[in-house]
Design brief:
mainly alpha; 296 residues; 14 helices; globular
């Protein structure tokens, strides 16, 4: 695999960062959509299907407007893997988990997504990150896990199982989507993924449509995760992975848990303390250092 040019790496990192900012609001917005155990709103299954269905309908319009050609036969395998992780695995797992835990907890636990993506990407694409790069990746992951241990007192809850499944689903989907983005425009990758899933997501959206009153805030949360988390965010994210390389750009996502913590304060009223800020600065420093480590 060719080494990306320095200019492409920088552009890929910026696009990846934009995608991370968009994705960072996924946890608080999903929490708004599903509510908590004491005050449930939209069902997690409905949120999973509806966010993909709305994004799929918009994607169908977009693909037709730009005259996008159908994916080639060899590209469908990557798109199917991407759909399993992006349309089903990650959204369903986090929606189920966020019924039981706060968005800050979910954001921290899923902070290991970058290292998972890097490992899957290195194996799938036969890349060889340097020892220094792996040190940075492991250090960032360790910081995230240390914060999780500090904030939760070392206690894991049942919802963490769903969150770890979300990590696996996302890592596989990101690598598959990044791989597909090297052969077609990045925005068309997510569009084909969600548009191709409409035969599944549209009937399920109708089947799970809520029959009781739901707050406007819950519908607003669903609208955000449909338009941005499920669709527009991937325009930037997959293009960034394709330009800068999956292993390197994926490390930008180390800062996503802490951005999610910051967003949770105004959206959900969750409390942000100084220790969280210190961990956030430390993780961002590791990401910047990893930028200079060679990947062959």
């Amino acid at each position: 695999m060719n080494t990306p040019a320095a200019q492409d790496v920088i552009k890929g990192l910026w696009l990846g960062a934009l995608g991370v900012v968009i994705f960072a609001m996924t946890f608080p917005m999903t929490r708004l959509a599903v509510g908590d155990a004491a005050h449930p709103q939209l069902a997690p299954e409905f949120v999973t299907a509806a966010r993909a269905a709305l994004a799929g309908l918009l994607s169908g319009v977009y693909l037709r407007a730009v005259g996008a050609p159908r994916p080639q036969r060899a590209q469908w395998s990557s798109l199917v893997v991407c759909a399993l992780g992006t349309v089903v695995g990650f959204p369903l797992c986090i929606a189920l988990a966020l019924r039981e835990v706060e968005s800050m907890h979910a954001a921290v636990v899923t902070g290991v997504i970058p290292i998972g993506t890097a490992v899957v990407g290195a194996l799938a694409l036969r890349q060889r990150p340097s020892a220094g790069f792996w040190v940075c990746a492991v250090a960032g992951c360790a910081l995230v896990l240390a914060y999780a241990a500090w904030s939760g007192g070392g206690r894991w809850v049942a919802a963490d199982g769903w969150l770890l499944l979300a990590v696996v689903s996302t890592s596989l989907a990101y690598v598959a989507g990044g791989r597909a983005s090297s052969h077609m425009p990045a925005q068309q990758v997510i569009c084909w993924v969600v548009a191709g899933s409409l035969p599944l997501t549209l009937p399920l959206t109708w089947w799970w449509w809520p029959t009781r009153e739901v707050t406007p805030a819950a519908w607003g949360g669903l609208l955000y995760v449909s338009l941005f988390s499920m669709w527009l965010g991937f325009f930037a994210w997959y293009r960034g992975l394709a330009l800068g390389g999956i292993v390197r750009v994926s490390q930008v996502q180390l800062i996503q848990p802490f951005l999610a913590l910051l967003f949770a304060v105004p959206i959900l009223g969750e409390r942000l303390d100084p220790i969280t800020v210190l961990f956030s600065i430390a993780v961002m420093a590791v990401v910047l250092i990893s930028r200079h480590m060679p990947i062959r």
